[in-house]
Amino acid sequence: MLASKLIKATTTTLLTRQSQYKHGIVRRFSLTQPVLQAKKVTFTFINKDGTKKQITEDIGMHLLDCAHKHDVDLEGACEASLACSTCHVYIQDKYYDKIPEPTDEENDMLDLAFGFKENSRLGCQVLLTPELDGMEVTLPPATRNMAVDGYKPPKH
Asked: Measured between alpha carbons, how far is 39 from 35 in angstroms, rounded to an integer?
């Protein structure tokens, strides 16, 4: 798995969240720190109004973390626990196949996403890699927050 390769290559502390369920399934969630500090990826968020924001960030960060760090309006109501679809984004087609396939849990949440397309992904599950340099990530026109419409979690 790509994340485990990045973890082995890191010289910094890596924070992960995981949960063990009664059936023995372990789910790992968002990385909260850059993994490889020396390497950067430049990509562009395209906002709902069509404006673009170019971002250069460390390899190993998730799109959701990048969006929050750079004040991009990507909600992430469940704080990367795979319990919502509010960090739903569209990945540029030529980069979509360079990202590992979504897990069953991610696909379940994408089924709830507003405006689902073939290139839809959850930003909390897309890890920046060198292959994604130059990618454009488009925010959908709306999101569905089942808990409280319009809620945005505070920055940590």
From this structure: 9
Which residues have C-beta within 8 Å of that of residue 57, sequence separation ≥ 6? 34, 40, 41, 43, 66, 69, 70, 128
Answer for the pair 86, 75: CB distance below 8 angstroms, yes or no.
yes
pLDDT band at 57 (very low <50, low <70, confident <90, very high): very high
* pTM score of the predicted model: 0.71
CA–CA separation, 94 and 85 (whole Å): 23
Sequence-distant (≥ 6) Cβ neighbours of residue 79 within 8 angstroms: 30, 153
Residue type, 152: K
Q: Cα–Cα–Cα angle for 43, 45, 48, nearest 5°?
A: 165
Position 20 confidence tier, pLDDT thresholds 50, 70, 90: very low
Residue 133 has pLDDT above 90, yes or no: yes
Q: Which of 126, 155, 139, 153 is nearest to 57 (CA)?
A: 126
Instruction: Classify each residue of 15-25 as buried b or exposed e, where b means 16 or more C-beta atoms within 10 Å of its C-beta.
Output: eeeeeeeeeee
Which pair of tokens denotes residue 54?
A: 């170019």
Predicted local confidence at residue 63, as pLDDT: 97
Residue 134 φ/ψ, nearest 5 degrees: 95, -5
